């Protein structure tokens, strides 16, 4: 049924709940840092001020160093966030869209107590020109709050495919309110075709040579369709898998890389043993799709299979956030032991 298969043991050490969960929490820091990089462009917006003012910037591409450069000069007449003190502490942030995670965000320094900040800073992206031309630049201005409750002050979006690259001069652009597509998170990342199965402990009978002494979760990653095309030649993709809260090397599995294909067929089966039936309420299977490059891998989208309760073994966790479709898929597996459950689930930002 599949060209590759892997099996690993998965133990929660429930009898040592406090220390084991603590170690999981420290392990989760690395996953949280990845997840944080793919949050919505507007994930930190706590303000309600209206966008106003202008921003002066210039764009350039350094062919020799293969570097996209955003020269952020200054802003004028920004909205006032703290009306009592008559102040804003603005900074400028940039993303390359549609895949906010691909290159990560860039941002300037914070200028305090001014609505007319002067930056004169260059934000740099190492990226091939042909990849850049299928992206959009999102440049937004924010008020920096000491407690992290930042306020959105305005933005501008530039279609880099139609940009005049001979124009290297600084120009003024009006800041606009947030675009509805970005606010609502409308970004299609593709769909994953997979099957999952739960085999309870000892459920296959004594005569079966493959009768597991502990429960098993089987994950069959079949294929993915309509991935983001990051290059004209397609995308070199692979799938990573973890069973959270375990983010150790024991939990980590991945498929082979499928090159130059936005509809890759993986046909890869992973088996996790060491499961007890009660663990299914607190565990979460995280499957993420990545574009493979020499220097770094770029996040394309993912799914999380679990009950989506926000809790794992009584502790609040941000990764227990399964969508309704993902929860229904997991629940169907829990209620149909030893049966393959098939599903077609949309990839999303995690």
UniProtKB/TrEMBL annotation:
Organism: Aramus guarauna (Limpkin)
A Pfam entry, by short name: C2
Start and end residues of each C2 domain: 51-173, 188-320
Gene Ontology terms: cellular component: exocytic vesicle; plasma membrane
Protein name: Synaptotagmin-like protein 2
SMART domains linked: C2
Locations listed in the record: Cell membrane
PROSITE patterns: C2
Coiled coil: none
GO biological process, one term: exocytosis
Keyword vocabulary terms for this entry: Cell membrane, Exocytosis, Membrane, Repeat
Taxonomy, superkingdom: Eukaryota
InterPro entries: C2_dom, C2_domain_sf, SYTL1-5_C2B
Record-level Gene Ontology MF annotations: neurexin family protein binding
Chief place where the protein resides: membrane
